[in-house]
């Protein structure tokens, strides 16, 4: 794309050669003469001439006159837009049509509805009664089970399973387990991004729900009947047990475990590796494993934990 075309898409200003053609995105550490690079502080560049074009903040425009620039009010946000523009060139986004289902080994069940601009990887399985909106991308080896709804602008990563059978069992008198069949589906709203190798279980009766704007990292498990609120972000290796209701704009750190039937308020941040075993009824930062508490309280607790050996020695001396 020419620099002037990119500037229109991401709403930035061009300085330099507007006809300069960009073929991709290069990193700061590996400059390419035909690519564009996002730089947060161009004053630290030792040799700007090595870069084809630079995406920078407008406040640095006077420092790099004579170079090909995209000047932005929010360069980090525009960098995100830029990556989405150039991701269209990946092999993963091969467009699916009736004649190339077999070539890509894609299997569709009965009564599926597929929107416009559907992109799909290889070896994908899509079950019965799946409704897929517009501009949806599904990665290689993903499985979309029956009775799943995908909204518009949804991305499903490679190897992810949506609509799998949930983990529900009842103890029998003889000590064995009786499995509970899950008859619901999964509803994923618009503008949701789900990483690779995630598992989202279908609901027992009603649907598991992922609301608009949610972003999910790789290796995340979301159990049956969970509801994830709008614009929540979930980092890798998080496990959310059944029937939890996660509020809007939550940020859940890596390796967090949330036990079943937990509710969280809007605007909650849960620090990495925390265990959540009680409802979080107020917005704020939460940290800890014994049990989880407000972040400020946890810091005080952690301080005393580091002093326990000294306290024990002091108490023993007092006894003597």
Characteristic terms for this protein:
2 domains; flat; 9-stranded parallel β-sheet; alpha/beta; 320 residues; 10-stranded mixed β-sheet; single chain; UDP N-Acetylglucosamine Acyltransferase, domain 1; Udp-n-acetylmuramoylalanyl-d-glutamate--2,6- Diaminopimelate Ligase, Chain: A, domain 1; 5 helices
CATH class bucket of the largest domain: Mainly Beta
Q: What is the domain tally?
A: 2
How much of the residues is beta strand, in percent? Answer: 25-35%
Helix content: 10-25%
Spatially, the strands of the biggest sheet line up as: 7-10-13-18-21-24-27-29-31-32
Instruction: Tell me the distance between the termini.
Output: 81 Å
**Runs with pLDDT <50, length 5+?**
88-99
The CATH topology of the largest domain turns out to be: UDP N-Acetylglucosamine Acyltransferase, domain 1
- Going by CATH, the architecture of the largest domain would be 3 Solenoid
What oligomeric state is this? Answer: single chain
The main pleated sheet reads as: 10 strands, mixed
Question: What shape does the CA trace take?
Answer: flat
User: How many strands in all?
Assistant: 32
Radius of gyration: 25 Å
**What count of helical segments does DSSP give?**
5
Arithmetic mean pLDDT? 89
So, the CATH homologous superfamily of the largest domain?
A: Hexapeptide repeat proteins
Question: What class, by secondary structure content?
Answer: alpha/beta
């Amino acid at each position: 794309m020419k620099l002037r075309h990119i500037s229109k898409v991401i709403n930035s200003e061009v300085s330099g050669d507007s006809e300069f053609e960009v073929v991709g995105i290069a990193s700061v550490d590996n400059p390419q003469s035909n690519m564009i690079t996002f730089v947060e502080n161009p004053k630290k560049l030792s040799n700007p001439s090595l870069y084809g074009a630079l995406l920078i903040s407008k406040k640095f425009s006077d420092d790099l006159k004579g170079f090909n620039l995209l000047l932005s009010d929010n360069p980090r946000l525009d960098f995100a837009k830029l990556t989405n523009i150039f991701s269209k060139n990946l092999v993963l986004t091969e467009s699916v049509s009736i004649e190339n289902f077999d070539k890509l080994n894609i299997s569709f069940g009965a009564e599926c509805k597929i929107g416009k601009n559907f992109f799909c990887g290889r070896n994908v399985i899509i079950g019965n009664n799946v409704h897929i909106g517009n501009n949806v991308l599904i990665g290689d080896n993903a499985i979309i089970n029956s009775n799943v709804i995908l909204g518009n602008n949804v991305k499903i990563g490679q190897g992810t399973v949506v609509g799998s059978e949930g983990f529900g069992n009842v103890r029998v008198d003889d000590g064995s387990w009786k499995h509970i069949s899950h008859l619901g589906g999964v509803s994923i709203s618009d503008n949701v991004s789900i990483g690779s190798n995630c598992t989202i279980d279908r609901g027992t009766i009603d649907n598991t729900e992922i609301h608009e704007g949610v972003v999910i990292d790789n290796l995340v498990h979301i159990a049956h009947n969970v509801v994830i609120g709008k614009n929540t972000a979930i980092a890798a290796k998080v496990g959310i047990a059944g029937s939890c209701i996660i509020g809007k704009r939550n940020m859940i750190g890596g390796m967090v475990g949330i036990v079943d039937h937990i509710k969280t308020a809007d605007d909650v941040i849960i620090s990495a590796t925390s265990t959540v075993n009680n409802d979080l009824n107020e917005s704020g930062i939460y940290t800890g494993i014994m049990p989880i508490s407000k972040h400020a309280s946890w810091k005080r607790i952690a301080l005393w934990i580091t002093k326990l050996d000294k306290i024990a020695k002091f108490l023993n001396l007092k006894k003597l």
